[in-house]
């Protein structure tokens, strides 16, 4: 703090201590008009409730004196008088740094056992996957959920539907560098009928039941407007993060209104990069855990 505030704080603290001492001295003196100890003061309430001149218990007074002595000793040993550090040199920031260094040392010892191992190797190690799960809870669960099943606008990491690819290298790249997925708005370039046909075609791709005329119109418009990113077959492009539209996985919702909203106004999805907050070993552990989620589902699916 500045020198001015340092002096103000010192003055206020010393004034309060002096005031406490003065209060003790003042209250210990007997006033000339004060009744004798144990005598009535003359104050009566409710007809029979009388006040007597009884002093405070000695133990209470002693505690008050000890609290003043303790405060003086504390200010000598610890910081409390503005910028004065105290004789022990203790600071809260130094204690926090020491505790943090201790935690970091324990963390480093844990992660050292997984250093320089490939994602595939870590994925096969139950202990590594467990550490990855802890990293996931701390860094990823806020968006993808504690069960990694995602939410509207946040991908499900258990379904093997990968926007940017599901190989170890691709998942690790997503964690390290983050992703920024953008779909442009077609509000000003599509007529209402074209939007309707396109919505029907995209929604009916995997479920069928669409009118043949509507399907032909939607397919034609899809080839002109959407195929450059999503592919002519609608299976997407992991290089661009363009989703597969031919399956039943919907990142932003599958209702008619959801799909129409996506086409008209576009979407902007961003995943933060963890290259600056997690080291290489931690990112590999996290990738191993994420891949283990989809792998475990794949193994449990009926053949």
TrEMBL record:
Transmembrane segments: 7-26, 59-78
Pfam families: Cytochrome_CBB3, FixP_N
Subcellular location: Cell inner membrane
Domain of life the protein comes from: Bacteria
Pathway(s) where this gene product acts: Energy metabolism; oxidative phosphorylation
Subunit relationships: Component of the cbb3-type cytochrome c oxidase.
One function term, GO molecular function aspect: electron transfer activity
Full protein name: Cbb3-type cytochrome c oxidase subunit
Keyword field contains Glycoprotein: no
Domain (Cytochrome c): residue spans on this chain: 127-294
InterPro entries: CcoP_N, CcoP_N_sf, Cyt_c-like_dom, Cyt_c-like_dom_sf, Cyt_C_IC, Cyt_c_oxidase_cbb3_su3, Cytochrome_c_Oxidase_Subunit
Function statement: C-type cytochrome. Part of the cbb3-type cytochrome c oxidase complex.
Organism: Hydrocarboniphaga effusa AP103
Annotated PANTHER family: CBB3-TYPE CYTOCHROME C OXIDASE SUBUNIT FIXP
Cofactor note: Binds 2 heme C groups per subunit.
Family in the record: Belongs to the CcoP / FixP family.
Amino acids binding heme c 1: 140, 143-144, 271
């Amino acid at each position: 703090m500045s020198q001015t505030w340092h002096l103000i704080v010192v003055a206020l603290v010393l004034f309060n201590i002096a005031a406490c001492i003065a209060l003790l001295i003042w209250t210990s003196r007997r006033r000339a008009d004060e009744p004798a100890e144990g005598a009535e003061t003359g104050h009566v309430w409710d007809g029979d409730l009388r006040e007597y001149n009884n002093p405070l218990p000695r133990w209470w007074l002693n505690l008050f004196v000890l609290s003043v002595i303790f405060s003086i000793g504390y200010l000598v040993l610890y910081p409390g008088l503005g910028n004065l550090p105290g004789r022990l040199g203790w600071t809260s920031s130094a204690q926090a740094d020491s505790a943090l260094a201790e935690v970091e040392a324990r963390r480093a010892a844990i992660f050292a056992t997984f250093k320089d191992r490939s994602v595939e190797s870590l994925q096969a190690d139950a202990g590594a996957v467990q550490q990855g799960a802890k990293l996931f809870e701390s860094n990823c669960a806020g968006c993808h959920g504690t069960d990694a099943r995602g939410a509207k606008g946040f991908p499900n990491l258990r379904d093997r539907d990968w926007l940017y690819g599901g190989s170890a290298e691709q998942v690790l790249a997503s964690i390290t560098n983050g992703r920024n997925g953008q779909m442009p708005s077609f509000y000003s370039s599509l007529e209402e009928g074209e939007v309707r046909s396109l919505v029907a075609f995209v929604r009916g791709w995997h479920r069928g039941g669409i009118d043949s005329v509507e399907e032909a119109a939607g397919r034609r418009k899809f080839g002109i407007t959407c195929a450059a990113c999503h592919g002519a077959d609608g299976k997407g492009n992991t290089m661009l993060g363009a989703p597969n539209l031919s399956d039943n996985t919907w990142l932003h919702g599958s209702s008619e209104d959801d799909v129409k909203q996506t086409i008209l106004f576009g979407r902007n999805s961003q995943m933060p990069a963890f290259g600056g907050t997690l080291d290489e070993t931690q990112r590999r552990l996290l990738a191993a855990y994420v891949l283990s989620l989809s792998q475990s589902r794949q193994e449990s699916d009926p053949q």
